[in-house]
Task: inverse folding
C-alpha cells in the first residue's frame, strides 16, 4: 500500500515537472536538444525528454577507448553490495534484467541517469517502463554516488567484453 | 468558578426534566465554534506545522503527533518492548532495557523534555523518564529512536524528571519515593522513615556534541516526595526548582497523612554552586550499581554497561546549595516563566496560586530571611520569597505553561478547566473548560525563553462521553486550543496512547531538515553484517547457527536452509540491502517465542530462534515491500538432534538438486 502511494505521488511529481518544462519553454529544452537532436515526445507528452540520454544529472559521459580496469574493479565491489541481489551478469532476468549487453543497448548517459535517478526515469522513460512491465518490481533507489555510477558503468562494459 | 458551578446546578435543576442535552453548557456544540475544522485541517500532502512529543504514560513509549491536525506520526518505543519494531526482542535492542535488576520489559514514561540551546528548543534530542525503575532515556531526533538509557541509583519513582537546563547542561531526576540509599541497609522498619529514608536528586550531564549522558552528581536531601521540577532560565539560569510534598514524612495512607501541613516546599537548588563543590572534591563517592545503555547507529547494536559509583553531595552539610520555600498546599507543578523571574507553585489542594520572585529569593538568602531549617536545609520565609498570589483561580491547580506575552495558562484538575492569567497583575484573563480532569498542558516552547504561542494542548485524565465507547476503558484524551487571540478556543479532541502526562512541541522545520532516511550500507559496522548477497552464508559454531542473511525487494538470501537440529540456537542476522527511504523489511519465523524484526535500509538486526519441534518452518517478510512482497519467503528445515542432515543453504536453486530429494 505504501509503495502504491509512492507510485502515485511520483506520477504526480513527474506530471508537475512536465508542466514546468513546457511552460518555461526554451532553456532546459534547448540544452538537451542541442546535444541530442533525437529528442522526442513521450507518451505523457513531455517535449523535452530525450529517451537516449534519459533524465538526470549526466549529460555527457566520456568513455575511454579501452577499459579502465581500476574503475571496473571498484564497480564490481559496488555491484556486489547493491546490485547483484537482483541482477545477473548474464542475460537471465532475476528480479531485474540481466546485464549482458546493456552497454550496447543503452547510452552511457542513459545508464548512469537510470541508476541514479531511477524513480523519475521509471515514470517517463518508455524503455524503462517496458522493462517494469516485465519485472513488476520498481528498481529501488540505491543511493549511488556519481563515482559509484561511473564505476558500475565501467564494470558493465567489462561484462560486455570491453578490453 | 463557584458562580459557574452554581449556575450549572440551577440549570440542571430547572431543565433536567425537560432535556438533558439542553442543560450541558460544556458540550461540543457550545464549546466549539464554526471555524474549528478549518483551523485544524491539514490537507492531504501538506505537512503539520509542529511536532508534538507526548509521553505514553503506562505504555512506556513516546508518541509523536502533528499539530494542528493531531495526526499520529509515530510511536517511539522507549521503556517497553514493542513487537511492531522488534524493540526489546531483537538481540541488538535487548541491552537497551537492561538494568541493575536485569531485563525490565516495561516502564511508565511520564514526562518529555526537548533539548535546548540558550533557552530555545534546538531539535536535537528529546528525553523521557521511567518512573517505576528509575531511568532516563534520550531519543535522537534524526532517527526518532531511543539512543541511550541510563538508570538512576538511590532513587525510586523517578517523577520530577526529565527536566533540563537551558543549554541542556543537565537533565534532572528527583526521586518521588524517598528510600534508604542503595548502599544502606534497606531491610529496616518502614516506620523508621524519618531516620532511614533519604531523597536523592540526580544531575545527569548531557554531552553537547553527541548527547551522551552521565550522572555528574546527586544531591542527598531529607526524605520527602519530589514531584516536578523546572530549571531557571535567563536571569535564574544556574538554579533549579523542585516541588515536593509529604514534608510530614508519612509512610502510610498518604492521601490523608501527607496533607496535614498547610504548606509543603519548593526546593531551590543552586546547581552552579553544586558544581563548585563537586570540583572542590566535597562530594562523597558512593558504591551503587546502575546500567548505562547506548545504541550505536554504526554497529546497529546496543551495549549495556554496569557502573558502580556515583558522587553524592549532602545538602544538609553543604548549606548553600539547597533552600526550601514554603508553598501551599501539596505542591505539584513548579513552573518558571520565560524571563526566569517568576516561579509558579501549584498546590494541588490549594485554592490559590502562589507566584515566587527569583529576585526576592536571592535577597531573602542574602538577608538570611529564614524560618529555621528543615533537616538541615534553610527554609526561606514565605513572604520573603512571594511575589503574589492568584486569588480564587479555580480548584486544583496543577501545571502552568507560558506564552511569552506575559500570560500564564494553568490547568485545574478538580474544576476541569484551563485558566489564563496575567503574570504581572495576577488577574484572571480567560478560562475554558476541558473534558475532563486536565493534567499537564503544552504550549510549543512553553517552557523556554521564547514560546511559540499558537496552540495549547490539554492532556486529560478522563475521557467519558467524548468518543465512541470502547468498553470500560476509553482512549486517553487530549484537546487542542487556539490561543493566538485574546480568548482561548477549543478546536479539536484527539485520542492518545497510554496515559499522556506531559508533552512538548516544536516547529517542524527544526527537525525535518536533519532526518536520517537510510543507514549507509558502507558504514554498517555490525559484526554480523552481510554487505551484498554474495556474502550471505550459514555458519555453525557448536549448537549455535549464525545465518548471515540479506533482504532486498523481493527475496531473502539464503531462502532455503537445511541442517538445523533440535537443541540449536539459530541467530538470523538480517541485513537490509536497500538504500531507499522508507523501505524497511520485516522478518518472522513460524513458532518463534519472540517477535519479528523490522530492519531499516542499510541496517542489520538479529532474531534469536530456538526451534522446539522437528519440521519445516516458513519465514517471511512482514512489511509490504513490492508487487512480489508475498513471494518474499523461505524455509528452514529442522531435523532431530544427532541427525546427519548436512548444513546447507542457498537462494535460487531449483528443487531438482540431489540433496533436496532426501
Result:
Amino acid at each position: 500500500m505504501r509503495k502504491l502511494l509512492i507510485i502515485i505521488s511520483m506520477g504526480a511529481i513527474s506530471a508537475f515537472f512536465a508542466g514546468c518544462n513546457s511552460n518555461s519553454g526554451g532553456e532546459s529544452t534547448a540544452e538537451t536538444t542541442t546535444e541530442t537532436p533525437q529528442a522526442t515526445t513521450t507518451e505523457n507528452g513531455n517535449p523535452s525528454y530525450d529517451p537516449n540520454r534519459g533524465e538526470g544529472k549526466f549529460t555527457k559521459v566520456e568513455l575511454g577507448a579501452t577499459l579502465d580496469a581500476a574503475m571496473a574493479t571498484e564497480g564490481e565491489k559496488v555491484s556486489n553490495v547493491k546490485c547483484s541481489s537482483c541482477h545477473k551478469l548474464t542475460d537471465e532476468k532475476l528480479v531485474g534484467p540481466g546485464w549482458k549487453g546493456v552497454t550496447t543497448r543503452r547510452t552511457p548517459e542513459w545508464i548512469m541517469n537510470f541508476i541514479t535517478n531511477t524513480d523519475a526515469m521509471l515514470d517517463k522513460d518508455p524503455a524503462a517502463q517496458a522493462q517494469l512491465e516485465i519485472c513488476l518490481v520498481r528498481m529501488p533507489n540505491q543511493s549511488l554516488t556519481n563515482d559509484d555510477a561511473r564505476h558500475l558503468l565501467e564494470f558493465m562494459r567489462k561484462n560486455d567484453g570491453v578490453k | 468558578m463557584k458562580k459557574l458551578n452554581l449556575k450549572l446546578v440551577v440549570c440542571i435543576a430547572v431543565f433536567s426534566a425537560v432535556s438533558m442535552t439542553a442543560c450541558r453548557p460544556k458540550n461540543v456544540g457550545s464549546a466549539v465554534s464554526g471555524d474549528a475544522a478549518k483551523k485544524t485541517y491539514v490537507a492531504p500532502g501538506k505537512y503539520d506545522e509542529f511536532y508534538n512529543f507526548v509521553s505514553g504514560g503506562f505504555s512506556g513509549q513516546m508518541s509523536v503527533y502533528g499539530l494542528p491536525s493531531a495526526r499520529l506520526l509515530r510511536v517511539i518505543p522507549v521503556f517497553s518492548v514493542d513487537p511492531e519494531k522488534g524493540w526489546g526482542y531483537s538481540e541488538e535492542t535487548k541491552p537497551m532495557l537492561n538494568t541493575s535488576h536485569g531485563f525490565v520489559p516495561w516502564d511508565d514514561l511520564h514526562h518529555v523534555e526537548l533539548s535546548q540551546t540558550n533557552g530555545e528548543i534546538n531539535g536535537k534530542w528529546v528525553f523521557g523518564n521511567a518512573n517505576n525503575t528509575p531511568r532516563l532515556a534520550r531519543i535522537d531526533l534524526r532517527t526518532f529512536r531511543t539512543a541511550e538509557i541510563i538508570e538512576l541509583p538511590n532513587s525510586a519513582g523517578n517523577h520530577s524528571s526529565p527536566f533540563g537546563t537551558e543549554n541542556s547542561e543537565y537533565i534532572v531526576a528527583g526521586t518521588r519515593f524517598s528510600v534508604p540509599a542503595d548502599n544502606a541497609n534497606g531491610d529496616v522498619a518502614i516506620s523508621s522513615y524519618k531516620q532511614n529514608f533519604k531523597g536523592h536528586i540526580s544531575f545527569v550531564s548531557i554531552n553537547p556534541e553527541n548527547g551522551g549522558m552521565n550522572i555528574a552528581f546527586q544531591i542527598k536531601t531529607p526524605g520527602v516526595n519530589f514531584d516536578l521540577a523546572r530549571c531557571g532560565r535567563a536571569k535564574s539560569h544556574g538554579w533549579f526548582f523542585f516541588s515536593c510534598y509529604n514534608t510530614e514524612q508519612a509512610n502510610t495512607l498518604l492521601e490523608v497523612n501527607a496533607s496535614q501541613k498547610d504548606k509543603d516546599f519548593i526546593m531551590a537548588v543552586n546547581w552552579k554552586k553544586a558544581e563548585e563543590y563537586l570540583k572542590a572534591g566535597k562530594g562523597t563517592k558512593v558504591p551503587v550499581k546502575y546500567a548505562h545503555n547506548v545504541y550505536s547507529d554504526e554497529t546497529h547494536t546496543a551495549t549495556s554497561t554496569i557502573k558502580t559509583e556515583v558522587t553524592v553531595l549532602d545538602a544538609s552539610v553543604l548549606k548553600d546549595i539547597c533552600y526550601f520555600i514554603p508553598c501551599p498546599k501539596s505542591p505539584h507543578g513548579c513552573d518558571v516563566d520565560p524571563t526566569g523571574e517568576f516561579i509558579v507553585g501549584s498546590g494541588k489542594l490549594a485554592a490559590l496560586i502562589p507566584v515566587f520572585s527569583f529576585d526576592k529569593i536571592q535577597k531573602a538568602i542574602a538577608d538570611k530571611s529564614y524560618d529555621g531549617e528543615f533537616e538541615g536545609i534553610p527554609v526561606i520565609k514565605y513572604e520573603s520569597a512571594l511575589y503574589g498570589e492568584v486569588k480564587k483561580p479555580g480548584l486544583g491547580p496543577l501545571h502552568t505553561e507560558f506564552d511569552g506575552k506575559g500570560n500564564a495558562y494553568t490547568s485545574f484538575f478538580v474544576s476541569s478547566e484551563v485558566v489564563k492569567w496575567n503574570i504581572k497583575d495576577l488577574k484572571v484573563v480567560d478560562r475554558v473548560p476541558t473534558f475532563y480532569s486536565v493534567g499537564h498542558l503544552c504550549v510549543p516552547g512553553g517552557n523556554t525563553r521564547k514560546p511559540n504561542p499558537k496552540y495549547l494542548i490539554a492532556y486529560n485524565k478522563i475521557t467519558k462521553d467524548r468518543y465512541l465507547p470502547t468498553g470500560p476503558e476509553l482512549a486517553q484524551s487530549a484537546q487542542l486550543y487556539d490561543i493566538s487571540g485574546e480568548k482561548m478556543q477549543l478546536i479539536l479532541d484527539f485520542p492518545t496512547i497510554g496515559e499522556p502526562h506531559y508533552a512538548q512541541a516544536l516547529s517542524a522545520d527544526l527537525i525535518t531538515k536533519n532526518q536520517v532516511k537510510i543507514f549507509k550500507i558502507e558504514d554498517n559496522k555490525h559484526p554480523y553484517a552481510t554487505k551484498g548477497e554474495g556474502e550471505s552464508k550459514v555458519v555453525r559454531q557448536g549448537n549455535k547457527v549464525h545465518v548471515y542473511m540479506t533482504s532486498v525487494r523481493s527475496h531473502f538470501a539464503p531462502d532455503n536452509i537445511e541442517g538445523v537440529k533440535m537443541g540449536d540456537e539459530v541467530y538470523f542476522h538480517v541485513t537490509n540491502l536497500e538504500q531507499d527511504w522508507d523501505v524497511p523489511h520485516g522478518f518472522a519465523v513460524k513458532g518463534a517465542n519472540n517477535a519479528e524484526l523490522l530492519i531499516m535500509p542499510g541496517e542489520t538486526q538479529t532474531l534469536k530462534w530456538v526451534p522446539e519441534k522437528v519440521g519445516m518452518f516458513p519465514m517471511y517478510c512482514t512489511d509490504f515491500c513490492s508487487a512480489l512482497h508475498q513471494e518474499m519467503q523461505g524455509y528452514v528445515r529442522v531435523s532431530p538432534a544427532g541427525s546427519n542432515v548436512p548444513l546447507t543453504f542457498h537462494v535460487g536453486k531449483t528443487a531438482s538438486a540431489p540433496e533436496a530429494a532426501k
Summary: The helical segments of chain A are 2-24, 26-35, 69-82, 102-105, 108-116, 118-124, 126-135, 146-159.
